[in-house]
Design a protein that fits this description.
Number of domains: 2
Structural class: alpha+beta
Strand order of the largest sheet: 1-2-3
Radius of gyration: 23 Å
Distance between the termini: 50 Å
Number of helices: 4
Number of strands: 6
CATH class of the largest domain: Mainly Beta
CATH architecture of the largest domain: Roll
Shape: elongated
Order of helices and strands: HHEEEEHEEH
Length: 180
């Protein structure tokens, strides 16, 4: 009598199932925290440096305001530094995705929770983006395109580059066959 081994039998859509439990979301790669901190530092550092230069120029014309300008700039710099330190880990923790046989679901947002569902049958094409800073950190972003004009693009940031390529290939294989 021959028995079938359920462990070795391929489940339908097994290649689409995440490595986690069915009700849990797959998190982003933790290296994205460092990447987001670096991009925030660049994004906030440039205007902060510009405001320091403008503040010093203004302070030179009115010497009595030097202390207030430096105090105000220091408080602004401290707030930016705190946001650069505080925000990325919480944003990473809030981000996740999961795939079942028919839908890709993403969630994100710290203050405002955003949940998006992408029916795999509506998937038009998938792009893999790796900017210079993402390449340095070994990360990539998946860009999923659907038909339509409003909110027709879904981006999953902060994926390990190899995992992003595997996920891209799985999504393309499972994508819709309703070509226009």
């Amino acid at each position: 009598m021959e028995t079938t081994d359920p462990i070795n039998q391929p489940a339908p859509f097994a290649s689409l199932a995440p490595a986690t439990a069915p009700d849990s979301f797959t998190p982003l790669d933790l290296r994205v925290i460092k990447l987001w901190r670096l991009t925030s530092l660049i994004g906030l550092g440039i205007p902060l440096g510009g405001s320091l230069i403008v503040g010093l120029i203004v302070a030179l014309t009115a010497l009595e305001s030097v202390v207030w300008i430096l105090l105000g700039w220091s408080l602004l710099a401290a707030l930016c530094g705190w946001l650069i330190y505080w925000y990325p880990p919480r944003a990473c923790q809030a981000w996740g995705y999961r795939i079942d046989a028919k839908v890709l679901e993403t969630r994100s947002g710290i203050w405002f929770r955003v949940i998006k569902l992408l029916p795999l049958s509506r998937l038009q094409h998938v792009d893999l983006r790796r900017g210079p800073l993402e390449r340095v950190h070994g990360l990539a972003s998946l860009i999923l395109h659907t038909a339509g004009t409003h909110e027709a693009t879904l981006v999953i940031p902060g994926l390990d580059a190899d995992e992003a390529a595997r996920l891209r290939d799985r999504l393309v294989a499972a994508g819709g066959d309703d070509a226009v």
